[in-house]
Write a structure and sequence with these properties.
about 625 residues, alpha/beta, Glucose Oxidase, domain 1, Enzyme I, Chain A, domain 2, TIM Barrel, eight-stranded mixed beta sheet, eight-stranded parallel beta sheet, about 50% helix, about 15% strand, binds phosphoenolpyruvate, binds magnesium ion
């Protein structure tokens, strides 16, 4: 009976997810997915099933190889022209990071390796679309196997590129819909191209059956301000034509909502617009608390296929530039000249502000396709500084590129990742000095950069006094520090609830780091995700930190919250939070007592599953 029930339970759960509410036909079904772009939309649902699907392409061979090669070449040319057109269309509206998807597609399509693989497959006698499917799937599988969430989701981008090429191969260009009224668009797989081809005014929200929160389509919908829910398990045929509510905060969709629910959500929509107006009011100002304590708000950058980064005038500089992504997207190590070009564009975009560039942090969940590392425990293995110290050639090229890029701009700081001992720092410092001397010989005007280390391995907490004698600054990577302190893999969904960013020991570590840095007069910044979390940012300032580095999307919220709070209030919050045994729930309660409504509304995406809490 137990076995039987277990089997039936799975079938029932699946049927309910598919919209068959056979226990209570009157109950309004709720469909759940991943909230990928915040906001609420109310309107008619439109299911679009016109997209051709790469997985519908089946094995087919050809005798006319030359014709298939020609078709492929024409499809690639059309796709390239199309990306250029779409990029231009969106250029005025969006920031550079969001547009990076079109640059990535262009880059991939121009990549000789992909073109050669496609041609070679056709040369074997496969029809162009079948060759395309095989090559795209093998590339996508390579990305899908990577444990880094960001890179894993690039598999989606490769598939999207394959879909686009398929449109042009089959000559079935995605139709530009003319809806009679704005709609909630439901698609099998949301792509950047769909978002770019439909006028923004016609999209109330987008719902995608496939995809995840960090796909480029999700990034694009956030940049366009369109609520989005991804990864929805439902039967879309049953939704089409109905009135619906999409809650981009909680990832919920309510088809045929009750009058009460509609009323409630309409109120939320108006609260939401009030809230964003409020936040925008402080976005251009310097970050400071209500009582005038200036806080440096810096940018985390580099997690983009684009080599440059958008200029953000409202930040105090770049607190963390992750250099590894461009290494990961290439077929070989980028040359010193290539790196020089990339770093210079970042340094000059922030020419009068500080830019902290981190040296290569590969290994762990970031394996280079051209240098596979096979380890049982990659996060405890050959990672970050451990790898670069074993490859001084690679390290020296990167250091020289950074130093040369900084000549005349003089705003470079160098940050070393994953340092766990003084010896590692000393060895790295010797190589930095060597790179500096080499650059200095050719360019005597080069300035010495500031050198810092990441605090992300717990051992650093106890050797900070030794470090203080050696480094100019430190930067706390709370993402890894939390992972190593709690012994919980930051990428493993199975243990995601144990990865607690506000765990009492994380807070105690943050307090310890701050007081040690203060005692040794050592400048310290936080560049992990905690710094951009609304409650995290308030807590950190309450603990005494005055430099926070975060993703662009959190800058305005954090500035607003700081401007609402006095330093005294924040200190009280930190004192209370440090006394809480259970981390997140109790810390949030303390925070709520400080700034009830605004704080709840702003932290809703990070900390809660339900937007309704805003109403409390
Ligand atoms: C961190 O670990 O907190 C950090 C900023 O580095 P990354 O997320 O790149 O590992
Ligand atoms: Mg890290």
């Amino acid at each position: 009976m137990v076995t039987l029930s277990a089997q039936i339970a799975v079938l029932i759960a699946h049927a309910i997810a598919q919209g068959h509410g056979f226990f209570d036909d009157n109950a309004a079904p709720v469909i759940r997915g991943i909230g990928a772009s915040t906001g609420v939309a109310i309107g008619p649902i439109w299911w679009d099933n016109t997209q051709p699907d790469l997985s519908d392409v089946f094995p087919a061979s050809t005798l006319d190889v030359a014709r298939e090669q020609e078709m492929l070449t024409v499809a690639i040319e059309h796709a390239l022209a199309d990306f250029k057109r779409m990029r231009k269309k969106l250029d005025l509206e969006l920031n550079k990071d969001a547009l990076a998807i079109f640059d990535l597609f262009t880059h991939l399509l121009n990549d000789p390796m992909l073109r050669n693989d496609l041609k070679a497959q056709i040369q074997k006698g496969d029809k162009a679309d079948w060759a395309l499917r095989q090559v795209v799937e093998s590339y996508a599988n390579r990305f899908a196997k990577m444990s880094d969430v960001y890179l894993r989701e690039r598999a989606q981008d490769i598939k999207e590129l394959g879909q686009r090429l398929l449109f042009f191969l089959h000559d079935t260009e995605y139709p530009i819909h003319e809806f009679n009224e704005p709609v909630i668009l439901v698609v099998r797989e949301l792509t950047a191209s769909i978002l770019a081809s439909i006028p923004k005014e016609q999209l109330l929200a987008v719902v995608s059956l496939e995809g995840a929160a960090n796909s480029h389509a999700a990034i694009l919908s956030r940049a366009m301000g369109i609520p989005a829910v991804m990864g929805v398990n439902t039967n879309p045929e049953l939704l089409s034509g109905k009135l619906g509510i999409v809650d981009g905060y909680s990832g919920e969709i309510f088809p045929d909502p009750s009058q009460e629910l509609l009323l409630e959500y309409r109120e939320l929509v108006s609260e939401e617009s009030e809230l964003s107006q409020m936040v925008e009011s402080t976005a251009d100002l310097e970050a400071a608390t209500k009582d005038g304590q200036r806080i440096q708000v810096m940018l985390n950058a580099g997690l983009s296929a684009d080599t440059s980064i958008s200029i953000n005038k409202n930040v105090d500089g770049v607190g963390l530039y992750r250099t590894e992504i461009s290494f990961l997207l290439q077929q070989q190590f980028p040359s010193e000249e290539e790196q020089l070009h990339q770093y210079r564009s970042v340094l000059s975009a922030y020419s009068n502000k500080r830019v902290v560039m981190r040296t290569l942090d590969i290994g762990g969940d970031k394996a280079l396709p051209y240098l596979p590392i096979d380890e049982d425990n990659p996060f405890l293995g050959w990672r970050g500084i451990r790898f670069t110290l074993d490859h001084p050639d690679i390290f020296l090229i990167q250091l020289r590129a950074m130093l040369r890029a900084s000549i005349g701009i003089d705003n470079l700081s160098i940050l070393l990742p994953m340092v766990s001992s003084v010896q590692e720092f000393d060895d790295a410092a010797t190589l930095i000095e060597q790179a500096y001397q080499e650059v200095h010989d050719a360019h005597p005007e080069v300035k010495k950069p500031q050198i810092g280390v990441m605090i992300e391995v717990p051992s650093m907490l106890y050797i900070l006094p030794f470090m203080a004698e050696r480094v100019d600054f430190v930067s706390v990577g709370t993402n890894d520090l939390t992972q190593y302190l709690l012994a919980v893999d930051r990428n493993n969904a199975q243990v995601a609830d144990i990865y607690e960013t506000l765990h009492p020991s994380v807070l105690a570590a943050m307090k310890h780091i701050f007081s040690t840095c203060q005692a040794y007069d050592l400048p310290v910044c936080i560049c992990g995700e905690l710094a951009g979390d609304p409650i995290g940012a308030l807590l950190l300032v309450g603990l005494g930190y005055d430099t926070l580095s975060m993703n662009t999307s959190n800058v305005a919220k954090v500035k607003y919250l700081l401007a609402q709070s006095s330093l005294d209030e924040l200190k009280q919050l930190a004192d209370k939070a440090l006394m809480q045994p259970y981390g997140k729930p109790s810390t949030i309660k303390c925070a709520i007592s400080l700034r009830p409504k605004v704080l709840l509304a702003l932290s809703v995406q990070v900390n809660f599953n339900s937007y309704f809490l805003v109403l409390l």
